[in-house]
Amino acid sequence: MAPAPIFPVKVGHIDDVQELRKAKPTTIPERFVRDLTERPTMATALSSATDIPNINFSKLIKGNPDEFHSEILNLTTACEQWGFFQVINHEIDLSLLESIEKVAKDFFMLPLEEKQKYPMAPGTVQGYGQAFVFSENQKLDWCNMFALGVEPHCIRNPKLWPAEPAEFSQTLENYSSRVRKLCENLLKYIAMSLGLKGDVFEKMFGVAVQAVRMNYYPPCSRPDLVLGLSPHSDGSALTVLQQGRGSSVGLQILKNNTWVPVQPIANALVVNIGDTMEVLTNGRYKSVEHRAVTHREKDRLSIATFYAPDYETELGPMPELLDENNPCKYRRYNHGEYSKHYVTNKLQGKKTLDFAKIEIDYST
Fold first, then answer.
1. Origin, by domain of life (predicted)?
2. pTM of the predicted model, to two decimals?
3. Which one of 14, 59, 77, 335 is most buried, counting C-beta atoms within 10 A?
4. Is the pLDDT of residue 354 over 90?
5. CA 204 remoteness from chain centre
């Protein structure tokens, strides 16, 4: 089958949401208006938020045995029942969190002509623009994105690392190094929560792939008509999300068929399980659909770090997690193949995970 045609979204004044916001259109352009079934209803926006679990990282790193055990149990519950949690006391300097927010916001505030020097090429997910767009009729998200590959260095495109703001590159290097260490530690504790050796994922992943995507959501005069980011699960093993200070509440996760807002906790980082971890745990820890909504008056900034195995890694459910009551649900595959599949399909809930699923016949 021939690959789906990829339509570049040329970032110009017509489809750049910051430029649209400046123009103050009397109506939302049709390209952004969602079908009725996709729109965030007022009832959703006003629903009371159920707090997702918090994980106190300091108790995992340096807590006494009782605190450590208790927090591992909390982590197990968070991964099994939510697929999302907020990490507090993560030991990343708050000044570094502030710095990465500042350079990200400063980049988005550059003139459009400057940002266009770093375009997101069709079929890729690095650069400035709209990712996951494959049809001229496809609805666009009310969001400007800037994404970069970070580790290993061979996935970087140096031409896309911006010259302005001047401190952007060094700040991102420092931030990514600290987030990488957090991911390594979280995976160690997630392994323990599954009854596995702490270093199992580190050995399996090789030189882990790490990428960052900065998202800027300007205010929207009709937040009931648009989505900031389409519903999807992440293809990563783990995703770490920093929600900008003072931003509107925009992240929502799908739990029990209801969109639940994630209320930001000051200085916390939101972590979610990706498709890769669902496969490795044979569905015990599931990736969760999430989306972003917009606000009529407030903007929102978020910084997502994606952490995944080396592209050459062969993945499949871990034998230790399979038995008669838990038959294998996913086939083995090359992670690079899945990554390519993920970035060449539009965001559509958890549909991309069909790539790895095994049809199980329960009739026999």
1. Eukaryota
2. 0.91
3. 335
4. no
5. 22
Instruction: Please state which architecture CATH assigns to domain 17-355.
Output: Sandwich (2.60)
What whole-number distance in Å separates Cα of residue 126 and Cα of residue 131? Answer: 8
CA distances to 48, 88, 273, 284 from 270, rounded to whole Å, are: 19, 9, 10, 20
Q: For residue 271, what are the CA distances in angstroms to 45, 128, 168, 262, 306?
A: 22, 24, 24, 11, 10
Give yes or no for a contact between 357 and 139, defined as CB atoms under 8 angstroms apart.
no
Run of H or E residues at 181: helix 168-193
Contact 39, 224 (CB under 8 A): yes
Give domain limits for the chain: 17-355
Residue 44: is it exposed, middle or buried by C-beta count within 10 angstroms (0-12/13-18/19+)?
Answer: middle
Contact in structure between 295 and 219 (CB atoms under 8 Å): yes
Q: How many CB atoms lie within 10 A of CB 349?
A: 13
Tell me which residue of 213, 215, 245 sits closest to 229, measured CA to CA: 215
Q: Tell me: the pLDDT tens digits for 193-217?
A: 999 999 999 999 999 999 999 999 9
Separation of alpha carbons 37 and 46, rounded Å? 18
The secondary structure of 79-127, three-state, reads HHHCCEEEEECCCCCHHHHHHHHHHHHHHHCCCHHHHCCCECCCCCCCE
